[in-house]
Amino acid sequence: MKAKNIFFGFLGGFALLQFFPINKTLPPTEAVQEFNMVQKPPGEVMTLLKHACYDCHSNHTRYPWYANVQPVGWWMQDHVEEGRTELNFSEFGRWSDFERREVLDHCARLIEKGKMPLPSYLPMHPEARLTPKQKALLVHWLRDPVPDTQPAKGAKFVHLPSASDTCDDNENVYCCFVGMPENLTSEMKIAGKNEPGERLFLRGRVFKADGKTPYPEVVVYAYHTDAQGIYSKNGDETGIRRWHGRLHGWCRTDAEGWFSIRTIRPASYPNSRAPAHIHHVVREPDGSAPYYINDTVFEDDKFVDDRYRETERRNGGDSGIVKVQRQQEGTWEGKRFITLKKR
Ligand code: HEC
For the whole prediction, is pTM greater than 0.70? Predict the structure, then answer.
């Protein structure tokens, strides 16, 4: 009986806390004072800082849903307020040149030592976990913050999904990576044996902007329609899967830039003249924002006609039109080459 009272007492107390939500209004910001306007960092540096520091050290805090659960929200707001007082990237322009150099140098030291971003922040924010390479890149620039000739644009950023986020937003390219397994190989398997349709085995190779240097460690996401031309679903999808359906997968290019996709041949959308296609989003290992590249389509598709060839969005000069050949056991095979030129 006593245990029950304690339990309900606790529950009541917890419910009461919810009447004191945190204030999530973002402080007003003057664009000219923003760090990116003042210091003109390269895109990679800006992306890493946004992912790893901006929630606590700028006026662009992204509050996750659990900020609405107290006392978690209070604890979080304390961090944000304290973080902003120590260093606010949105008010960077108020400091003198000397102070800016000092604080960036201090940031480099804290990142090197693993003190920032705060370790307690990392479990729920995988995008803030800096790889040794990203750490090195960031520290190097912070110690010698040369302005970039093509500086990163605004500090505004799309909502970055966290592990618990279902990410129901087809416009947000980060959502494509929700649910991705931690350990990726260069082999992607989208469709199993029971998936109706003709088997397809696609080999792919990714090159850097020069079109010659193989690009290892690039994450490739792919999704496509089923043999009926539908982004078919299991029925219990949440988030981005409600848009992209169940036929999807990820892989990471090997040391020579190669990857492969084992799946079925997709079909055109019903009653459409759009060729059957596979969508791809790539994520480069430098921490920059992922982006769509042109679709893979098939040379033998009647909708891949002169008009399609003309309008195909060329990406660094290589095309997504793949020549496929049927092997003896019935599997279609083809090769897709991709040269990545950041836009
Ligand atoms: C989860 C919130 C959070 C994140 C993310 C975060 N910080 Fe902090 N930061 C704080 C808080 C809170 C303080 C003040 C208390 C402290 O020093 O531990 C602080 C303090 C600082 C200070 C001043 C510390 C001092 O010794 O004077 C610097 C500089 C700093 N952070 C840089 C960074 C950088 C750079 C990043 C990203 C790589 C980052 N922080 C990420 C919350 C955060």
Answer: no
